[in-house]
Amino acid sequence: MKNRGMTRRPLALTAATTLALGGLFFSTPAFAGTTDQSADQQDSNEVSAALAQAAEDANVYAWGTNAAGDPVVVVVDDAADGDIEAFAAEAFAADAEEPIVTTIPSAPVSFADGDVVGGQGYLLPTDDNRVSTCSFGFAAWSPAGDPAFLSAGHCAQGPQDLFLSDPSLDSGSGSESEYVGYGDGDVLAGTFGFSQFGGTGNSAGRDETRPMEDQNFTDIAVIDVDAASDYTPVPAVTTWSSITANAFSPADDVIEITAVGNPVAGSVSKSGRTTGYTTGMISEASGHILDGFSNIDGHFVRGFSSNVIAGPGDSGGAVFQGSTAVGVISGGTEATETTPQWTWSTLLTDALTYTSGYEVALHIEAPVVTSAATVEVGATVTGTATGAETVEVTLAGDTFEAAVTNGAFSFPAPAEPGDYSYSLTAVNGFNVSEATAYELTVEAAATPAPAITSPADGSSIVDEVTSVSGTGLPGAEVVVTIDGTGYPTTVGTDGTWTVDGLDLGYGEHAISVVQTANGETSSAVTSEFTVVLASPEITSITDGSTFAPDNGPSELSGTGIEGATVEVVLTGTEPAAFADSGPFEATVTDGVWTVAFDAPLSVGDYTATATQTLDGASSASTVVSFQVVAAPAPGDEGDNGDQGGNAGDPGDEGTLATTGMDTTLTLALSAGAVVLVAGGLMLMILRRRKLAALQD
Question: What is the overall mean pLDDT for the chain?
């Protein structure tokens, strides 16, 4: 423990920080507020609010947890005698271990310079004929699927046009020249849409009346690409290695972004227009925060820290680990001769939730066909498509989708022998891969039988069947025979066929299907199924219900198919309890039915079985069981009273003789409790009076 005598912070500040820091890092902060908070949540909110106040007073500029879940606090080391560390130790002394204290040389500021792959720069003209610069983060999609970019919220000044900077003149290219202006020849990149820096509505500081977790602190902006522009955002970030003062070729050396995720301890990289492509660390040993808050130019930002090199103009630049997007540059302090770089990045997964549906554009690998180049008629073409949801298959201008399951896809080869040219693209949302060309030769073979996928053979289908479907050779002619009537159709390019517009009513049905390809007709495939009525519902009694002897049910009701006849059979252990066990019948009217018994049911166990019939078809049964229970016998109320026998009677097992001790003891205990409470109250009163006297 540090020497507390070294602490020269005001007592009130130390107390506030003790409340704030002591415990926040040992439970996961709730960053999204609720209207109905538990006591623990309210305590957490009070702690975070106190921490925020302490941060404003004590040069604490960031706090959170590292990868190991340990508490981390970041302070500005403006005291020569090291009292910052003593202050932090004092703050945590009450009820927690000491935090990891990280010091930075000055307050962090946003990395926007005052004056299109990710990492490239853009220009913002100002009212005084100057420009400021920031960096693109990641290519993105709007909720409507329009191209966009992500950047830092503090770069935006409301809806505003921005222009592409000349990468060959940006500092990241290694050029010594600085781009200092813009003109008519510059490319209009787009316009800022949504942006937020700090709290909701770009609010600085915090609302002291609300928990910090409710204030959605972030630093994010979306840039809607101008429809008239002649460039397309690419889901990749530049390494700047192919960009020089003489040429700009960002696509020659990029890192493709394939996923979005949360940061983890380890190597982290960034790309920005000022310092280019740099790699650093999110290090537990260096006290880096994996998830927390920082005060950037008076605005709180949820994010994480690292030592990745960044500087003015890099704001909004891409922060990534491998090929996973994790953040955009928000601010920090640049390295000095004695202190390392400290960079704060917006937590991307959190920031995206405020953009109303914008998402990072991802690179999807082109699909790979694993089938041979030559197959027989009836073969299946297979392949893989990593990260895709579907594969779009185009053949002779006709496109269909093949589903991707566990990274694999398949589709049927054509029915006719010949040579075919396919184009395949992998798709995930708005993200589409480059096309894969596949040349296929189909050789003649015996025409296989088609398949019936619905209705399945031997199945029972409720109410009606309106379509029959299956698979076959693409382009083959199919004849579907249903109950003796033929329905011709053609197999689509995706290998499926359907006959719809049917009205197969209640009863048994039979299907037979053949397909013809290359002048040869296949053998038949068959399916037999039954269309049945839905079972009626019993709604007045639930299974397992229990009724008192004077409240036995006198009727049963439920729902069913309009016009159907519902039949209810009642059985029980006390058949003499009712004159007639049924069947009771009712017609479903306005969707409901009711049957009445001759009299309320008396004591016994009962089972009600309901079925419905319509147009000669019958449903499966619905069954409920219930009880009408007997009244408890005298002396069975369980109150140890002398009802129907002397207490202590040898035949009255389980009942203790009344001795009078229970009543006396209860009164004695009650009296003792009163004395104890009164004594406690008197002691409290005496202590308070003594304390008041000492204070006076």
Answer: 77
